[in-house]
Amino acid sequence: MSTVTKPVVLLSDGVVALRRPEPADGDYYWAMRNNLALVSSVMGFRLGVAERTIDEWIASGGGVTGDDLLLTATLAADGRPIGYAKAFRVDRFSRHAWVGLSLFDERDAGKGYGTRILTQVCDYLRDYVGLRKISLEVLASNARALSVYHRLGFVEEGRLVSQYFTAGRFEDVLILSRFVGDGR
Ligand SMILES: CC(C)(COP(=O)(O)OP(=O)(O)OC[C@H]1O[C@@H](n2cnc3c(N)ncnc32)[C@H](O)[C@@H]1OP(=O)(O)O)[C@@H](O)C(=O)NCCC(=O)NCCS
User: Fold this and answer.
1) What is the pLDDT of residue 151?
2) Ligand 1 atom closest to Cα of residue 103
3) Which of 82, 89, 93, 160 matches a 20 to 30 Å C-alpha distance to 76?
């Protein structure tokens, strides 16, 4: 269809780039979704998934609807997919959305990529979608994720006690939010 050989980039800070998912990303999403140790901290993914299901899901736009947004994060230098970010339940009237993100491989954690992904997503949602508030849910035990969120200005707005069962125990889930635009 296209003569473009390099993937088109929607956002980039020079180290991490974000673009819409491509069919070639399927292996990365598939590996992540079947890595129980990794996805147990993401919430919502427990059962594993077949490769074909991922291919269909990408072909359908990642299951996002309306103004929702699914982005594959890549290394800007070589285009290697490293994770994804999602903005969902985008409310254009309240100018609010929920976000979620994960790296595909634990070996890429702790290198600043998650911070770069979320920073760009927040800036994009403020500057191009016009949002003023962004929220997310995180397991209270997910210290690394909380470190990123707190550093980027997310503050706790609620705690769902003993909410999510994973790895043999019930965990508290925190709701964190950050105001990114005017109009609080
Ligand atoms: C959570 C996640 C997105 C963060 O991305 P990342 O690239 O690893 O994070 P960064 O490297 O940008 O930052 C990690 C921060 O956590 C800190 N950290 C690392 N391990 C930590 C720990 N055990 N306890 C507390 N802080 C920790 C680091 O010091 C760093 O903070 P600093 O830069 O202020 O020093 C990523 O680790 C991930 O995908 N994890 C698995 C899935 C997941 O938990 N997703 C989020 C669901 S809500």
Assistant:
1) 98
2) 39
3) 89
Q: Among the atoms of ligand 1, which is closest to the Cα of residue 39?
A: 42
Structure tokens at 112: 């600043």
Q: Which residue has the tokens 């909410």?
A: 163
Return the residue whose CA atom lies nearest to atom 16 of ligand 1. Answer: 144
Q: Are 73 and 82 in contact (CB under 8 A)?
A: yes
Domain 11-131 has CATH 3.40.630.30: yes
Counted residue by residue, the chain has a size of 184
Q: Which residue has the higher pLDDT, 44 or 27?
A: 27
Q: Which residue's C-alpha comes closest to atom 4 of ligand 1? A: 114
pLDDT tens-digit readout, 89-112:
999 999 999 999 999 999 999 999
pLDDT for res 5: 59
Q: Is 150 in the pocket of ligand 1 (CB under 6 A)?
A: no
16-19 and 11-12 strand pairing: antiparallel
Ligand 1 pocket, residue 110 CB under 6 Å: yes
Map residue 18 onto helix, strand or coil: strand
Q: Give the nearest ligand 1 atom to 41 CA.
A: 44
Q: Which residues pair with 91 in a beta bridge?
A: 96
